Predict the structure.
Amino acid sequence: MNCTKIEKWLSDRIDGELSERKTRAIEAHLEKCASCRSYAASLEKIHDEATSLERVEVSPAFWEGFASRLKANLESSREERREKRALVLSWNWVWSGAALLAVVAVGLYLLLFQSPQPQEMYVFSLENSLASIYQEIGDDSELEELFNSILVESIDEYLEDSEWKERPDFLENLLLWEGLTEEEIEFLESEIKKDIKS
Amino acid sequence: MEDCSDGHLVEQAKQGDVEAFAELARRCQEKVYYTLLALTKNQQDASDLAQEAFMQAFKSLKSFKQRSSFYTWIYRIAVNLTLNFLKRRKREEGREVLNESHSVNKESEDPSFSPDERSLKKELSEKLQEAIDSLPLPYRASFTLVVFQGMTHGQAARILGCSENTVSWRMHKARKMLQARLKPYLGGG
């Protein structure tokens, strides 16, 4: 039997992780091998010594302090979470409000600048509405400016009535509307639908 | 609250119940703290890291699917945080590694030992503590969990995020290193 393998098994045996078969093999080997017997004895001694190293006992006051510090941290984390949640909800309102106003602006534009078309059954779709705005605007910068100003005015009006006093960043970059992903459009659409229902 | 199962408390804590989480923490804080103390050798660091671990656990409680026990989960967070902390500390140049002598030997004052024996045992326990502290971090972490916390290789493996074989191998290597270093103090054995 290889002594290197036995040394590894001796370590497993101390941790109670050795199978019976291997334990029997170790015992048979130790009877014949003085070097492994000596190694096994020193491992046992190290293990006994290590498990008898006494840990520092901390006072009950330490645990009381630990618990109250943790509780204070937990409470403040919960408060932070609530504030963040409120903030996210406010932003959701700004976004959905802005999108709703965008649709209103589109409606106004189509009403004022379009020639009467045969009426079709209206199926609400923000994505289609935005697409038709851009199609209508095309390369007409005047029209684009008009649309943007209606949009910004509407949002500003909404913001004045809401608790949200700061102008959202995206107003500085109206092209952001073009970069909306399908998921974002879907989200806005669902928010607007909820608003329309209520 | 004290009669509630861990699983029930976890569910309550997931709803934001601070008291429920505090009770969960109370149940395992000692084991967590002493493991971190064995790794950091500094009471303040161990206490701060244990606090941080509990806070991290609280914040990410929603992601805890209870596939393992809460105890294993928090232990894993705490040990990982501490290993990262120790790696950072090692990298920091010029920082003095704190090495509080936090261990004494129970038997060092045992009257059944003669003064010479007591002195030898004291020396061995001091050298053993030094030798354990000098083990490379992955070996020290395995040794701490298995020997000081009495964990199986499997439990230690789950906390350290490695296989049982790795823990078994690290324990063997750690013992080889300790044995080599302590040879002069181990007597005839």
